[in-house]
Please model this.
Amino acid sequence: MARYFNGKEVELLAPAGTFEIFKAVIESKCDAVYFGGPVLNMRMMRKGYNLSHEEIIEALNIAHTMDKKVYITVNNLFSEEDVEEARAYLRFLDTARPDALIVQDMAVLELIREMGLNLPVHASVMMNVHNLEMIHALKELGVSRVVTSREMDLQTAKLLGRQSGMELEYFIHGDMCSVHGANCYFSSQVFGMSSNRGKCMKPCRWDYRIKRDGYVFPAEYPLAVKDMFMYEHLPELIESGITSFKIEGRMRDKDFMVMLSNSYGDAIDRYIDDPLGFDRTQDSKDLHNNRKRDFSTAYAFGKPGLSNINRRYEGTGKFYSTGKVFSTPTAERELSAERVMELRGRMAEDRRSTLNNPELAVRVNNMEQARLVLEMGVDSLYLPGDVFEPDRPFTKQDIKDLGAVKGHTKLYLGLPRMMNELHFDQYDHLLNGERLPIDGLIITNLGAIRRYRGTGYPMMGDANLNVYNHLSAGLYAGLGLTKLTVSPEMTLEHFATFTSHSDLSLEVVVHGTPALMYMEHDLFENTEVMEPIGEEDNQYVRNEVLVLKTDKGENPVYRDQYGRCHLLFAKELCYLPMLGEMNGLGIASFRIEGQTYSIEELRTIIAAYQAAMDGTKPEDDLLGGLKPVYAGYTLGSLQFN
Model:
């Protein structure tokens, strides 16, 4: 079965959570169905969901008899322990012959190549594909379709599709996230449950208050976005060249999914049959009356702002697939001596016979911090691509000035975490002109590797590449990265196993307040359009810093020069007591995220880490006299096994 408009294929893609739901949905007016198997997918939280091997085989037979397609989600990040299971599962899928796999981890591409399998691959929304270079790079790696970033508008999708020739898949209905795909680490740091491994505990749905400038604002659920609803905009979707119209809902019930699929399928058929006479609103009211949350077109026609934030049923649990609340506000766990001893003992088990001479790196936010780092003789200085307000981005002259006095310190230029075509144009001009006095680039996305590997600047991968196993690390190394930052989501066992078996140069973020959430959604808009309901000072950061507040703590939010928001830890990550054991696992570099600290605070932190690395820190003092600047210290995801 296939639909066409002006010679272009239009595919309606519906989800199924169980075999029973699949049998009903495949009979509806969809062209294809996607579901997960028993392992390695992003919907592992609900008992009794996903299909067995036998059900996958039967589902494929049913669908192909009806001339419909089946896509199977193998779309979470793999730990080292998952790799052998993935090999066996991919061998099975190769014999089952699905029409494609939907994948997040680069390890899947590496396994398919290594094992000589014939499995078409679609890039999951969790790959966060958001620029032309990423699409070209994925095509070169064998990917045949891309599920676009949730923040991509239709005009950008139209441009990228035409310029790349790649099939694009676009979410048209269902549950959305407020955070860029695979850039949310809140669940893993607070619960040890990774949102990139199918176990998100939904902290975006908590009841927060916003504070700024000493005032409290009445933003009840400021991260809770509405459901996507593109039913009335099917003509614009078709005109943009989108190949596959994707409905979200693998955890939804059967009757609801059949209703959605039939409604959208009927509307597509009506438009194809009579585009001029097409009634956009026919059956729209029925969909609205059966909604789980309120509706939005999200980023399809530009940044939606506060109109994208949901109120319906938030906090009641009614909108969840299970009818239960996933989680309630929970504090980040406090660093304890007992847990540190456990971590040190476990890491020591995989100690290598030869140790590195590890380096210290510091990421800064302004020239004053940068000069301090050089003054203290730190091994590497990182200039970010995303600079927190009120500081301004580093200029070319700033880079030259720092390069002239950097001495033995290596100077790295970071790229923006999300790069659109304008950003590439700007960095092209900067990096292809006169030689900059930098020692390398900090790479944040696959497209930037492809674009800048010929410039002659060494490239290292930042944390948001989410490197979680040796296969993805090896693929990135093969593409030209000389160093990789370990995924910030690794629990103890995953961290120890991966790092002890990797031959690549690895860096770990050991101190600071890294971003738990990175989003296009502008939380500052709440403070600009709402009237305050009270007065209250921030507990740990300056009043001019926006914070999200629950009864369990306050998370600061910084906005960068592009208007994107970075929600940070409430506590400070601190791995100071474990540097020796991490060195024993082969970690080549330790990074301090220093962007939010004052000069004196940063000086104290750098000195403490230098003393620990030099062996001059008192052995009987766990933290070398270091005191937290913010709400305390945490071990982040290493709190969990």
In short: Residues 77 and 421 are 28 Å apart (CA to CA). Residues 254-273 form the longest helix (20 residues). The mean pLDDT is 95.
